[in-house]
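Just scan this pair:

***
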Amino acid sequence: YERQGGQLRHHAGEEAALRDVVADQVRRLGETHAEIERLEAAVREQGDHLGRTYAEIERLNTLIRTMEESRAWRLHQWLQRTRRPD
């Protein structure tokens, strides 16, 4: 609107252009929110996967410790130390 000669004049073209800008920004904001949600889901998935990986590493380390404590392992190590090089 513009005051001219005591009257307000409506600038329809400018108003339409501004509405288009606002509509575009709202659309882009929606796209940004959708991308943020997608990325947050990917981060959660990676975190879950990493947790499972660490659990598997711990399981394997426990298995190795159990194996190293066995008599068979100690015998194997003794044989390796006492074996003559070829």
